[in-house]
């Protein structure tokens, strides 16, 4: 009892409470900025605690910790961008709810769920820290492997009705994780000799690219809404305090289950909120009477995700206090802070520094109250983001994403990855998650697919790639070709809302900017000589005419019909090379060209007959 009172006396001082209040605000703001993680905020806070008493410094960092788990909700709900990895699942229902005219309710649900999740985890921490710590340390490789497999099955179930689509998304994620250095053997994997890939793809950069860049790109698709000053979300922006608190408490099973999931996963060394929010969300969906409404603004999804990720804060302290093993990167920083003050962290921490441990328990509860107070006061200000027009908020958030990605490792190459992954995320959003028929307005039927595959076979015959000739440059060229094929589909969509000249202008401007960037990649942009300028102008005008014709054609016919004709440039180039430059004509080129023409003709013939039958 004396240890408890001693810890409480150190926490309930005016200076400590003011510091904790500032820490909660800092954690919320840091997590709300895409790319600025809670860990980064804790690292920046650590030097400020060196002059404080040990418990006072830990209390401040715990406030940043707890506030950070809640702050990721802000951008997830209002922008559709998870502020931290632990708020990924929050985006699934909080953003649709905000889009449906209830941004205030979405934020209120998340804040109250985070508060109760932290309180529940604190209670579990106080009661069960030693036994749970002993249980967690007994988990071996097989148990962790089972957890990862379980997480992968969750990813497949989160996509809705299409399990195949979820499995494909999971395989893409696994493929991304294999890039870099093998953690067992220390050998490079799939870096293709590119230096920036040797350390792997930074998870945060991938997260920002997939969610943030793709979402922001989707927001500016509708030029009219951008010009008219439409906001990202509309509706009631008032923070609903007591009404939503009752709504959260009326979901006791979901709230307690999600909090327990967060505590258990947080207690596993190496696991954390990024896994807990997905597992809690999945369990809520599996046990719901209306699972189909998840992903469309179901409040249970918001409660589960936020309660689950916030409960990992208390769960992560279990192995730290019971065994001296940090449960996450943030817990490792907390341990470092204690060691700076000469406190040995280990199994004897509770016995040797009981007042400190009890003070940490109290600090967790006070930090949750501070988070709630700061949220109730400041969320009204954050909700004003919902009223900011797209033309202003989109570039501001884009800049924050770029700055956050760069600040992670201070590497310019991460920005290249961010751009590439953002484009890939936009393509996945448009093509892979049941949005292709709605957004593109074009069904990819089996006959069209077969014709496209046969035409692609003809291209392979013409190019005849081999492992010996494979190089990073060729892989990049192949990726550019795939991107060009995707651009044809998007161009066809744009022809329904914008003029050909408008599309041509932005296409040319984008190509000019990207061309200059690529030309100066080695730091040397070669300018054409005076004799070459007329030829360059002729080539440029020819390219403009070609793009104009291609854009017009895509406005009149599906991409599956237009692109095989465009691919005939391969045999035409071969013939021009033979006539003008005495290049030998490869018979494989003729065979590939014949296959391309045959696939294209079969596709056009089928489309024409189908159109005639429809008219008849």
Structure description:
With 616 residues, the chain is mainly alpha-helical. The chain folds into 2 domains: 2-138 and 215-284 and 299-392, no CATH class; 444-520 and 528-615, no CATH class. The chain contains 27 helices and 2 strands. Strands 1-2 form a two-stranded antiparallel ribbon. Helix 5 packs antiparallel against helix 6, helix 7 packs across helix 8 (163-177) and helix 7 (141-157) crosses helix 13. The longest helix is centred in the first third of the chain and has 35 residues, at 103-137. The radius of gyration is 28 Å and the shape is elongated. The termini are far apart. InterPro entries: DUF112_TM, EamA_dom, EmrE-like. Residues 472-599 form the EamA domain. Residues 17-440 form the DUF112 domain. The chain crosses the membrane at residues 20-46, 58-81, 109-129, 141-160, 197-217, 255-279, 320-344, 356-379, 391-409, 415-433, 445-463, 469-490, 502-521, 533-554, 561-582, 588-605.
Any idea how many domains? 2
How far from one another are the termini? 90 Å
- The share of residues in extended strands comes to under 5%
What is the string of helix and strand elements? HHHHHHHHEEHHHHHHHHHHHHHHHHHHH
Tertiary shape? elongated
| Total strands | 2
By oligomeric state, this entry counts as single chain
Provide the structure class. mainly alpha
Poorly predicted ranges: 156-160, 433-446
Biggest β-sheet: strands ordered side by side in the sheet: 1-2
